[in-house]
Amino acid sequence: MFFDNIFRYHKYFDKNNFIKSIGGKVIISRNGIVNTFFIDYSLFVFIARFKFFRRLFRLNRINIRELPNGDVLVIYNYKVYLIHNNNVQKKITFSFTRYVHDETISIENNRVVIGEYGNSDGKFSVGVYISNDFGVSWFKRELQSPGIVKNILSLKFDKFSQKYWVFFGESKEQSRIEVYNLDWSLSEIIASGNIRYRRLAHFF
User: Fold this and answer.
1) Which of 48, 142, 170, 179 makes an SS bond possible with 187, Cβ 3.0 to 4.6 Å?
2) Per-residue confidence at 178, pLDDT binned at 50, 70, 90?
3) DSSP symbols for 80-100
4) Residue 123, SS3?
5) Residues 120, 149: Cα–Cα separation, whole Å
6) What would the pLDDT profile of 62-91 be if each residue is shown by its tens digit?
């Protein structure tokens, strides 16, 4: 198996089935049928071939997730896109989120949740974007008022309790774990005010 080192691979089963990207160029191969999608300007895709520019402009900071219905979700350069029927559709423009950790995306069948990551800088509320129809339509739930936390580090759906665990924080004061119901009403504050509650990964 050979991986071209200028590409980032998001999924790889074999040479005929994979998803890879370079900058804002996304290449999807399914059963040997290859489709290419340009999410960003072609100039940025070109300069992303050079390591120096990829790192300088963070051109490979991209999230790509395949949804259960076969559509593909792309988070890149402050925006969320949906690749549906080989068409790219822009769905969300974030206030401060350029990209997210993979642990900040929750996919449960048709329900997709994205937590806001980045630096809210005390100017923006911090919350989650929710889709109940495989990414076709979205709405936001604000979880923290401006100045309370910087971002969401990760979130996890608990299938047993049918609730979402959300992990916030960049500092001791901001670090907290909160549990939310399916309607995103607050169920419980597990802990707060200690750096030990700053979590990027978790399991149930």
Assistant:
1) 179
2) very high
3) EEEEETTEEEEEEE-SS-S--
4) coil
5) 8
6) 999 999 999 999 999 999 999 999 999 999
